[in-house]
Amino acid sequence: MNPEILAYTQMAVSGALMGLAYALVAYGFQLTFAAGKAVNFGQGELVMLGAFVGLTLTGIGIPYWLSIAGAMAVGTGLGWFVERSAVRLALKQHNEGWILLTIIIGLFAVSAAENIWGREDKPYPVPWQDGSIDFYGISVTWPEITIAAGALGAMILIEIAKRCTMFGIAVQAVSADPDAAELCGIRSTSATSLSWAVSGAAAAFAGTIIGPVTTVGPTMAAALTLKAFSVAVVAGLDSAIGLVFTGIFLGTVENLSGFLLGSGWRETPGLILLILALALRPQGIFGKKIIRKV
Amino acid sequence: MLKATNLHAGYGGSDVLKGISLEVPEGSCVALVGANGAGKTTLARTLSGLLVPRKGQILFKGKEISGLPASRIARKGLCLCPEGRHVFAPLSVEENLLLGAFPRLPSIGPFRRKASADLEKIYDMFPILQQRRSQQAGSLSGGEQQMLAIGRVLMARPGLVILDEPSMGLAPLVLKEVFEAIVTLRKSGMTILLSEQFARNALSVTDSAYIMEQGTVVLEGPSADLAKNPAVAEAYLG
Questions:
Q1: Do A169 and B70 touch (CB under 8 A)?
Q2: Which pLDDT tens digit goes with each residue over A160-180?
Q3: A291, B89 in Cβ contact below 8 A?
Q4: Do B153 and A183 touch (CB under 8 A)?
Q5: Dihedral through CA B194, CA B199, CA B204, CA B208, nearest 10?
Q6: Which of A179, A183, A289 to mutate to test the interface with B (most CBs of B within 10 A)?
C-alpha cells in the first residue's frame, strides 16, 4: 500500500477505536437522561477519577483486571452520590440548577485529583503494554483492542440488561412516564439512582480502558466531557447505536485533523460537530420519534 | 376497605378538594360522578398517593396511607388506572402488562414465565391485547390503550382498583367492551371505585355512588336511587 495512505489509515483506525471510548462515556449521558431528564456535566471527571483509582490500585500491586473492578465500584458510588446529593434537589424544585451543580462537583473533582495525584500525566501500566497486532500493515495495540472490546461490551451488556430484565424494563417505564411507573409500584427515585450508579460505573470503566492509551491526568476530564457531550448531542439522547457510529466518526476525524493540521487542532472537530448538531438537528441524527396516537 | 375523611388537596395555592369524605366497602363497586373539573381526578390522584393531601385522612384496610409514596400505596393493593390511560408508549404491550405486576416479579430471571398465568387472564379478557402483544403501546388506538391500562392495573392483583374516567374519548362500541370488563370484574368480587363524567353507565354498573361538584360531595346513596333522582337525571344523565 502507498505509505502515505497507510499512515492516514493507521491514524483513522486508531481514532475510530478511541471513538468507541467516547461513545461509552456519552452512553453514560443517555442512561441518566433517560431516567431523570438530567445529565452529569462532570462525566469526564468521573472517567478521570476512575482512571486514577485504577492506577492507584495497580500501583499497590493489584492486577489490572481487579483494578478495573475497584475503579467501577468507586464510580458506582460517585454516580449515585452526584444524583442523590445534588441533581435530585434541583429537579425537585423544577429548576436547571443540576447543570451548574454537576459542573461544580466536576471542578471539585479536578482539584481533588490535582492535590492527591499531582498535575502530571501518568502512564497506566497494563500487562501487555508492548504487544500489537498487524492487519495488512496497520498495527493495532492491545490497549486499543481493549478499548473497543470493553466499550462495545459494556454498552451491549447494559442494553441487554435494559431490555431483558424486569429492572431494566422498569427503568424504561420510569423514563417514559414516572407517575404511571409509581402506580405500578416502581419507586421512580430508586430507578433514577440506579441509572446514575450504572452511569458512574460506565464512566469509571471507561477511565480504566482509556488510561493505558492516553495516560492519566487531571486534564483528561474536561476534554472527555466535551467530546462525549458532542457525541451524545449529535447522536441524540436515546440511540445507543447512534453513539457508536458518532463516536467512531468523531474519533476518526479528530485523529486525522490532529495528524494533518497539528495536534493543537485535535479538539476542533468535536466542537464544530457540537455546534452544527445544536444548530441543525437538536434531537440528534439518530434521535427517534415515539409513535403516539390519541 | 377504603375510607377517606375530610380530604383537602390541590395544586399550587388553592384547594381542588374541599373536604371530601367517602367510603368504599370491601367487595363493593362505587361510582364517583361529576362534571369536568369537579375534582374527580384530583381525588383519584390523592387516594393513590400521586398527590399528598393538605388535610384529612385516608385509611386503606384500616391503616393510614396518606403521605406515603404512590409506589408504596400501589404495593399495598390500592391501584389506580389513571385518567388518560398513561400507558408506557415506547414499551411493548406485553412489557406494559408485566410492569403492572412489577412488585411480584423477579427483577432478574424468568419474569415472563412467572407472570404467564396472569397474562393469560388479561388476554382472555381483552383478546386484542394478545394480538398486539409485541407492538409499541403508543401505537394502539385509544380504546386498546384503555384496555391495556385496565389490564396493567389488574396484573397487580389489586385489592381495590380506582378506574379514573375509563370511558374518556372512546367510541361507543369500545365503550361497551370496557364496561363489560368492569361488570366482569365486579362479578369476580373486586372492589372498584369508578370515576365517570357520564352517570348513566356508571350508575348502571355500581352499587352506590357519590356525586361531586366543585370539590365536594353533593349527593350520595345507592346507585339505583340516584339514577331515579330527578336532580341527578337533569344534571348528569342528559
A1: no
A2: 999 999 999 999 999 999 999
A3: yes
A4: yes
A5: 60
A6: A183
